[in-house]
Amino acid sequence: MAAHSYKRAIIDAVSGEGSQSEMAGEVAGGDSISFYRNSDTFIDMCVGPHVPHTGHLGHFKLMSVAGAYWRGDEKQPMLQRIYGTAWASKKELKEHLVRLEEAEKRDHRRLAKELDLLSFPAALGGGLAVWHPKGGIIRKQIEDYSRQRHLDGDYKFVYTPNLASGKLFETSGHLDFYADGMYPPMEMDNGTYYPKPMNCPMHCLIFDSRQRSYRELPLRLFELGAVYRYERAGTLHGLLRIRGFTQDDSHIYCTEEQLPNEIASLLDFVISVLKAFGFEDFDFRLSTRDPEKSVGSDEMWDLATEALREGLERHGLEYRVDEGDGAFYGPKIDIDVTDAIGRSWQLSTIQADFNSPERFDLEYVAPDGQRKRPVMLHRALLGSVERFFGVLIEHYAGAFPAWLAPVQVIVLPVAEDHQAYAAEVVGHLAEVGFRVESVAANDPLGKRIRNAKLQKVPYILVVGADDVANDTVGVNVRGSEGGPERDVPLQQFAGRLAKDVEQRT
RNA sequence: GCCCGGAUAGCUCAGUCGGCAGAGCGUCUCACUCGUAAUGAGAAGGUCGCGAGUUCAAUUCUCGCUCCGGGCUCCA
């Protein structure tokens, strides 16, 4: 109890005559207060339960210490918390520790370094990354795929700048609601400018650039847009929490009547795109209005919330409702994916917005010639390309499928005599568009195999005298249990790789 | 932002109770020419994160800053 002066304070406050402190009121308002005694010297006021005595903890290991705000409120003092893990048996404890080690091996920050994908140089500043060639080619594959899907989905590609006048963010409401998350303004000769924290205000300007007809709706504007948001220093975490990132962002302008259909087809689109990246399990969350932190009429909110709900229900999707978790301008559906080791990541978001069209005074001409207000949907599928890549690295543990792998094939000549043939194989595969490298026989074959495996290359081809004679290759498939496949005709291998790439497996 | 911890070679890390710093891996050179997860020998490689202070002397002690890690809080 001596170590829990705050609990002492609660008890004093509760027992103190006429005390009206918040804590006292809160505790005294409950049905009862429970105490647990684990030894003569450790008595804890706690809702419990506690184990009868520490012997029941079984096999444990202390893991870390960290600060934690009293009652989870950052305005309150900070306490020291000691974290440990306890298991019934030594075996289970050990298994848990092994699981932690495995998770650490897929940490995207570690793999990004090991696989030379990207880095976070201190000289660049916190929460900012530079992409190296191998990370860059993967990113290009991701973005190219996204662009292709959006082309197919009748999205219109737009580009907008990284800075905008403060007036734009006054109009959009961001300066009112989100100034803390925006970078400080730049004063220039003709006004005040901010790095953009969102793309939507600019897309609204594009909509508003001329008179719009109902015939144009839904108008789907798409951009891989870089945004900058101030994240507090202690919250930064590799690619998963970063200060500059790129959204696969779209704003869809449609009529109120089109909204349910548009949401329904969006849900299909999201799921289909995420599945291409190897995700199979999805969780849906519907977030509703927080009256304290929102704008717009109840009518608008109800309409938008119902449209989202209808979209989910039309698909028969199970979803959870997060009351009060909506954006300031509207309700949303967030989509979480489950990765290869069962962890959940929030990626996609679909947000209804009746507010921005109002603020930007957007209109279209209806069939009857009347001017009407469009409805707007914000949506991102990957969310942030940077964050998505971080999740993808962890999902695949760095072993990217062939269509994403920075190097798809490494060709290893058994000895110097086979070098010329290895170069031929490389030339042939490169010519048809594969990313392929060769490593000369300066080191023993075993070592070169090992290095290629550590780089998680999908296919390692070994070529020796037999292969030179017969136009074949020895194929090592990443992760295969059996030994290498010998004497595979080169054309046959090329066909197999092409199929992998095409099917994104 | 807050609490605790950290920053030494390209990477992983040891070390200096204050006296111009080390290993393994990697890199480079030479030899080896090898059929499936580490060939051998040699060499190069460091403003000991940045800035101030104390000291005859600071990578080491003190202070400030930057960046990183584990949490907390926050995340349109």
How would you describe this protein?
With 505 residues, this protein is of the alpha+beta class. Helices cover 35% and strands 26% of the residues. The protein is built from 16 helices and 25 strands. The protein has an eight-stranded mixed β-sheet. A five-stranded mixed β-sheet has the order 22-21-23-24-25, with helices on both faces. The protein has a three-stranded antiparallel β-sheet with strand order 8-10-9. It is globular and about 75 Å long. It starts with a helix and ends with a helix. Mean pLDDT is 90; it is low at 17-21. It binds one RNA strand of 76 nucleotides through strand 3, strand 4, helix 4, helix 7 and helix 14.
Head-to-tail CA distance between termini: 58 Å
Counted beta strands? 25
* Largest sheet: spatial strand order: 7-12-13-20-17-16-14-15
Note the main sheet: 8 strands, mixed
Outline: globular
Radius of gyration (CA) equals 29 Å
Percentage of residues in DSSP E strands: 25-35%
Structural class: alpha+beta
Q: Report the oligomer.
A: single chain
Estimate the mean pLDDT confidence.
90
**What ranges have pLDDT less than 50 throughout 5 or more consecutive residues?**
17-21
Helix content: 25-40%
Q: What is the count of DSSP helices, taking H or I runs of 4+ residues?
A: 16
